[in-house]
C-alpha cells in the first residue's frame, strides 16, 4: 500500500477516504495554534454592532466556541454567518448551534464574491482570524463598500516537533507523495527541509486549494495536483488521477 503524507492533524474522514482507495495516510501537523484576544472577542460578540460574522478557518470557529454562550449571544441567531466549505458549516452548527452560509464556496475568493452578491453596501461583518490571514476577504468586501472588522484571535506557529517528523519521514517512511493544506504550513515545512539532505522535496506535491498551490509554486516546486474542493474525496481523487496518468505514461 502506497503511503501519502498529509500535512494536517489526524482526521477520520481523510483516513477513510485514503484507505478506501488503497493508500495509507501519514498525518503530520506542521502547525500549532495559540488563542489570543478571547476577552475582546467576547465583548465584540456581545455588542450589536455587526450584521454578520465571517469564520473562514477552523481555528476561528474554535476561538468563538471558547467564549460562546447561546443564551448570551442569542442575537446571532438572526445574523448572517459565513464560512468556507461544508465541513466548516457542520463544525459551526455543532459547536455554536448556528446555520452557516458558504458551504459550496471552497475558497476565500469565492466566499468574498458570495458575500458581496448577497449583502447591501454598508453591511458590517466581524472577522475573527489568525495572525497570518489573507487580505482577500477584506479587500473584496471593502471594494463592495462593506465593512470588515478583523480581530486576531489566534496565532499560527511552527510545530516544535516538525523537523524531527520530517527527518523520520525521509529516513523511515518512504512515501509516494505529499499533500499540503495551508500556505503557512508549506513555508514552515520547506524552511525545515532546507536544513537537511532529503528526498521529500522530490516527491509529487498536492495542494488542498489554489492559495496553497500558489505558495508551493512560489517556493519553486511544481504542483502535481490541486483538489477541486477542500474535501477528502476531492483530495484523494487528485492523487489517484495523477498516479493513474503517471503509470499510463510510464
TrEMBL record:
The keyword Magnesium does not apply. Keywords: Heme biosynthesis, Lyase, Porphyrin biosynthesis. It is an enzyme of class 4 (lyase). GO terms for molecular function: uroporphyrinogen-III synthase activity. One of its GO terms (cellular component) is cytosol. It catalyses: hydroxymethylbilane = uroporphyrinogen III + H2O. Pathway: Porphyrin-containing compound metabolism; protoporphyrin-IX biosynthesis; coproporphyrinogen-III from 5-aminolevulinate: step 3/4. One of its GO terms (biological process) is uroporphyrinogen III biosynthetic process. It holds the Pfam family HEM4. The keyword Lyase applies. Its EC number is 4.2.1.75. Residues 13-234 form the Tetrapyrrole biosynthesis uroporphyrinogen III synthase domain. Belongs to the uroporphyrinogen-III synthase family. Catalyzes cyclization of the linear tetrapyrrole, hydroxymethylbilane, to the macrocyclic uroporphyrinogen III, the branch point for the various sub-pathways leading to the wide diversity of porphyrins. Porphyrins act as cofactors for a multitude of enzymes that perform a variety of processes within the cell such as methionine synthesis (vitamin B12) or oxygen transport (heme). This is Uroporphyrinogen-III synthase. The lineage of its organism: Eukaryota, Metazoa, Ecdysozoa, Arthropoda, Hexapoda.
Amino acid at each position: 500500500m502506497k503511503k501519502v503524507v498529509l500535512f494536517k492533524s489526524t482526521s477520520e474522514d481523510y483516513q477513510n477516504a485514503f484507505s478506501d482507495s488503497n493508500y495509507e495516510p501519514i498525518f503530520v501537523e506542521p502547525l500549532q495554534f495559540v488563542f489570543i484576544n478571547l476577552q475582546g472577542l467576547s465583548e465584540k460578540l456581545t455588542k450589536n454592532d455587526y450584521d454578520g460574522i465571517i469564520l473562514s478557518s477552523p481555528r476561528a470557529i474554535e476561538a468563538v466556541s471558547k467564549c460562546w454562550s447561546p443564551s448570551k449571544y442569542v442575537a446571532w441567531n438572526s445574523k448572517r454567518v459565513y464560512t468556507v466549505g461544508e465541513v466548516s458549516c457542520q463544525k459551526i452548527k455543532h459547536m455554536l448551534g448556528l446555520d452557516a452560509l458558504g458551504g459550496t464556496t471552497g475558497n476565500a475568493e469565492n466566499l468574498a464574491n458570495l458575500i458581496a452578491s448577497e449583502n447591501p453596501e454598508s453591511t458590517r461583518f466581524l472577522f475573527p482570524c489568525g495572525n497570518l490571514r489573507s487580505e482577500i476577504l477584506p479587500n473584496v468586501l471593502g471594494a463592495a463598500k462593506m465593512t470588515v472588522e478583523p480581530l486576531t484571535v489566534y496565532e499560527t506557529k511552527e510545530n516544535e516537533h516538525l523537523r524531527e517528523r520530517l527527518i523520520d519521514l525521509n529516513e523511515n517512511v518512504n512515501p509516494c507523495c505529499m499533500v499540503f493544506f495551508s500556505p503557512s504550513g508549506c513555508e514552515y515545512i520547506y524552511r525545515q527541509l532546507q536544513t537537511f539532505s532529503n528526498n521529500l522535496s522530490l516527491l509529487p506535491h498536492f495542494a488542498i486549494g489554489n492559495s496553497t498551490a500558489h505558495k508551493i509554486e512560489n517556493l519553486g516546486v511544481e504542483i502535481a495536483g490541486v483538489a477541486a474542493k477542500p474535501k477528502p474525496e476531492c483530495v484523494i481523487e487528485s492523487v489517484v488521477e495523477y498516479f493513474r496518468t503517471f503509470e499510463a505514461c510510464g
